[in-house]
Amino acid sequence: MLMPIFFRGAGVGTYWHNNDARVLGFTPKSPGVSPGASRMMQHVARGSHTSPYLSFSRSFGIAWAYGVVGTSIATQQNPGYVYELDIPDPLPPGVTLLDPLQEVAKTLGNPPGGSYQHDGQQDFLLGVVDPLNHAARLTAAIRQPPGSSGTPRGATLTLELETLVRTLRDAEVLALGNIPAAWVVYRHDVW
Fold it and tell me: Does one domain contain both 96 and 179?
């Protein structure tokens, strides 16, 4: 049985744009760093380079978006790439695929102390999903009950919430271990 096809975008000037994964395979930036929920959240939400994880997407469209934006915008003359991977099932020893949503959800507490709720408006998550186009939603003052005189502030965005939202936004799957070049079946030029 085969796993679904996975994708990874490589924008112009990024590491995987300059280093062909069809030849090298994919290796994490910091393979010796211990994996765990905290490190995973830093990887997904903050793009941490100190990570034992590799990110892949189930969505060609998401990988395309990462492929067209790098240190410069991709053009037909200087395209970005989307790598297409066919990962076998069962996985060989030394490679693990993880769903960050499930992994982070295991660490969340129950209400009232749950760390993924927010206190913003209904449209607050638009800012988390698309901070470039909806930054104002992240900084908009929260509504307070009538008669309150609290200090105006933006909604609370926890690392847990940001990780969960970005995982869903990017259809993200993480790999632990090296992905051999043989699993990279194609590299699409994108612009």
Answer: yes
* φ/ψ of residue 58, rounded to 5: -80, -10
Res. 6 pLDDT band, cuts 50 70 90:
very high
93 with 130, same domain: the answer is no
- Identify the pLDDT of residue 113: 64
Tell me: do 178 and 148 sit in the same domain.
no
Number of domains forming the structure of the chain: 2
The model's pTM is 0.89
Q: What is the pLDDT of residues 21-64, one digit of tens each?
A: 999 999 999 999 999 999 999 999 999 889 999 999 999 999 99
What range defines the domain where residue 88 resides? 2-108+170-190
Cα→Cα distances 69→82, 106, 107, 128, 157, Å:
12, 33, 33, 19, 25
Residue 63 is inside which H or E element, if any? helix 60-68
Rounded to an integer, what distance in angstroms lies between the CA atom of residue 143 and that of residue 138?
Answer: 13
Q: Is residue 118 one of the residues assigned to a domain?
A: no
